Structure formats: C-alpha cells, structure tokens
Amino acid sequence: MPAILQIKNIQKSFGAREILEDASVTLNTDQKVGFIGRNGAGKSTLCKIITGHEPADSGEVVFSSDLQLSYLEQHDPYEDDERVIDFLERYTQQEPWRCGQVAAQFQLKNELLEARVKSLSGGYQTRVKLTAMLLREPNFLILDEPSNYLDLKTLILLEEFLQDFRGGFIIVSHDREFLKKTCDHTLEAENGKLSLYPGNVEDYLEFKQEQESIIAKTNQNILDKKKQLQTFVDRFKAKASKASQARSKMKQIEKLTTIDIGAAQGNVRIAIPHGPQRNGLAFRCEDLTIGYPEAVIAERIYLNYDHGAKIAILGDNGQGKTTFMKTIAGDLEKKGGDIKWGYACEAAYYAQHVVTQLDPTHTVYKHLEEAAAPDVTKQDILAMAGCFLFRDNDIKKNVNVLSGGERARLCLAGLLLKKRNVIMLDEPTNHLDFETVEALGAALKRFTGTVFFISHDRTFVNMIATDIVEVAGGAVKSYPGTYADYVYRMENQVHKELESSGSTNKKAKAKKVDEKKLRKQRDFAKRDIAKKLKRCEKQQEKHRKEVEELEAEMANDPSACTHANASRHESLAQLIKDEEERWLELQTELEKLED
Fold first, then answer.
1. Segment 393-446, tens digit of pLDDT
2. What b/e string do you get for 486-507 counting C-beta neighbours within 10 Å, with b at 16 or more?
3. Is 46 in contact with 10 (CB distance < 8 Å)?
4. How many alpha carbons fall within 13 Å on the CB side of residue 353?
5. H helix or E strand, kind and range, residue 36
6. Model confidence over 310-331: pLDDT tens digits?
7. How many Cα atoms within 13 Å fall on the side-chain side of residue 259?
C-alpha cells in the first residue's frame, strides 16, 4: 500500500517542555487511525503541524503527490449572520446543489440549510463543518476531537460517514467506543514518540499491557540475577582462590541491563471525597415546567430518584438537556411546578460556563484549596490535582496562563473536592484523555452519592448510568430501558432516516461502489494479462535460444544431425508458433480492456 503521509523526526517544544522528540510514522492511503495519548502528549500539536497551523522545531512532514488533505476546523470559519448554504458555497466554492447533496449526509436539509450557522447548536455547527470538510473531496482527513459536544445521533451519523469513507484519516478522540467503530489502526503519542499498531484501540491497549507485563517480568529476572551475582562477588572477592571468578561475575553484572520502558505514565485513579452515605429520596420534581422568559422548553415533568442513583440525561443537542440541568441545579428559574431535594442534599454543579468564573489571580493549588471542603487534606488536594495532570510546578501556575482545556480540568477537580453528596456534570469529559475519562467514570461509579450527568461518551455513560432521562420533543421523561437499549434504538432511528431520505444518494453510492469494483476487476485482469504476456515472451525467447543452439551444433558437427535433434527442432518451431498466437490473443484482450 503506497505511503500518503510521512512524519519524519519531528521535534516540538513549548519553552522548556518537550512535547515531541524524534517523532516518526508513515501512514498509507486507506489506514483509518485512532490517535490516543495523555493530555499534553502532543496529539493536537502534531495535527496542527500536519495541517500547517503550527511549525515544527525540526523534522519534516512529507506528503504524497496524490494527497488531498482536509481537516475539521477547530475555529468558527463562518461569518456572524451567514446562512448554512451560503457558508458552504463561499467556503468550498461548490455549486448549491452539490452543497445540499453532501449536507444531506449529515441530515442538514430544508430549513436547516437556510438557518444562520451561529443559531444552531454546537452539534449541528459541527455537522456544518463536517460537510465543508467533505466538499473539498479529500482522500485523507485530520479530525481533532470531532466528537466533542456532539449528541449521540450526530455521533452515529459521523460514524456512518467514516465507516464508508473511501480514504484514510487520523482521529484524535477520548471516546473509546467511537474509535472502536471507526478505526483499524491505533497511533499513540507517549514520551515524545509515536507508536503505530495494526489494530483497534482495545487490541492495542491489551497488546501494550501484555508487553509491559513481559518487560516488567524480564527486568525483575535481570535484577534477581544481578543480586545473586553481587552476593557471590561480595562474599568471595577477597579470597585469592576465588578472585578470578569474582571478576568474571562482576563483568556479567555489567552486561546485565534492564529494558528501558520510558518515563512511567502511571495509572489514573480518582478518589472522590464524600460524606456519610444517605438513604431514601434524593430528588423529586412534580409537574415541572422548564424554559426561559420567552419560551417553554418542556413541561409536565415528573421524576424521582433515591440517593446513590446515577442519572444520565440524554437527547439531541438543542432539545433542552442543559436547560433541565440548570433548572434543577438552581441556576435557572423554573417556570412552574415543584422541585424537591432530599434531606441534607448539597449539590456541586459543573456547568459548561464555569471556566469563566475562575479567579485569574489564583494559582492552581489556591483554587483547589478554596474549592475543597474544610476537612479535605493537602494530600487529597495534591492527589486530585495530579489526577487531572497538574503535577510538580504545575500547581503553582496562575489560572490566567492556563489553556481552555486546563481550566476545564481545574474546575472539575475543584468540584470533586467539595465533598458534596450530589454531583451534577454537564459534558465533563470533553477535555480529558480517555484514561482519565474512564478513571472518572470508575470514581463516580464508586461514589455513594447521587450523580446527574450529561454526556455522549458511550463508554463513560455505560460505566455509570443506573437511570436514564430522555429529553426530546418538549418532554423530559424517564427512559424505561437500559443505556444499551437507548443506543440501539437511536442507531435504528438514524439508519431509517438515512434510508428514507437518501435513497437517491444510496443508489448513487451503490453505483459508485459497483464502478469501483468493476475498475478493480479490470485492473486485476490487465495485470494478469500483462504477466501472461511476459511469460509468452520469455518462453519464445527460451525456445528461440534453444533453436539457435541446436542449429549451431548441427552446423558445426555433422554427426549431431540426428533424427532426435531434427524432431526437437520441429517441436520448438511449433512451440514458438503457439506462443506467438497466444501472445496475439492476449494482446487483443488487453487492448479491449484499455478501450
């Protein structure tokens, strides 16, 4: 398979911190690569280097002449009042019909094409960006965290597109399920280096764990052997009769070296401080109406949950999940009905806007210290900071120098230290690597209090949810099935919508698939005929050489003019004739295929 993209010896540092060190990898035309690694390992930096948005300190990125690269924009490339269709036409220079055709793959049709892009939810804005990316007709994609803020339906649409995409891509994502469904290779950034594995993320992590286990066992055996040899040396080095053996053992010790496994990454384990466990009612709402002064979002809401429940709030973007969360958290005034919390319930709320409320003059440690409950120890604070990648001198950083992702992690760490018995989380996983996502999921599962959370990360939801609330069509209801049931229903719904609205597209796609299959068959046939032609030519050459040798032998030695040699000469002439006729037939077939 031809190489389409080569990353050669890339070095990149930010100040004294080296992100990438001699990072190299070669990617082929149709490899679908899931890109993983800890926060700060260099995933987004490498994507920016590939797309030309960030220079490398040294090294190079080599593109194949066949490469048609496109990427998912991280900024908003549309203008304030620009309609979806107008943006797509301007940004991609494609005809309106083509823009509409591609947009339909992401269910952007009719009134949505006429809507202002900035009036759409974050998930639908991402659909617009995906459409713009695809309209460039690429054969290789770079997608940095494409699933952030996407609802489940859009995520399934994106998976459908990526599974059918005839080309390669690199996807940075913390969503293990998303990577499993879309990628056949795994690329990891770790300790400044890149490792490419021919398998999905779960296969890779299993392989990596096995390798680490083997290395650890090997290293322990080496250390045990060195200890055994050192004991002999210490005991006998002073004895003349054993001195030569002791020196030999010392040389053996010098040759025994352990296998370097790089800087230890450690395993993330989050411990959430919490108070005494409570039983009975945690939350109840009756005839609740939610919305804003100018609009009702949902009404007649009846829900109740006991202490210890883990409630996932699910639904399409723009349906009111965050409105419901803000209302029950007290951040938004209810429009009607009653909300009742159980005895001594105290909630800690992680909202999408909390990062704007940080004091820019505080250090990381100062913020966590003020956010933590009075009886939380300094060691607990440092441990929580470390879990969210604030280690060593990082805890002395001022808030005003932190990136958006670092601020989000800081707010989440501070919230978990509050020692509240109700935790409310709105999209908590967007700025976490998947190891931290799963550590947070495990911690929330162990947490004895109550959790309300909004998330579209299927692995995260699956780890935690005991109950599901669905927000859709002006209603907020308890969903009767499991999360697996919910996902299955949503997948079927998306597939039916694609089938009912995209029959023309599906026929066109099927036609393209047939044409591609036909081209492959034709190319295979042409290669096969070319091989047979070469064999014919070689056979003719071989037979002619034997004829020449036979004729020379009979000319130089009359005794060689035997009946057997004459018969062989006649046979060779016939073989040459047969091969020439075969060559002409094959040549005719080849010309027909090339027409």
1. 888 888 888 877 788 888 889 999 998 999 999 988 887 877 888 889 999 999
2. bbeebeeebeeebeeebeeeee
3. yes
4. 3
5. strand 32-36
6. 999 999 888 899 999 999 999 9
7. 12
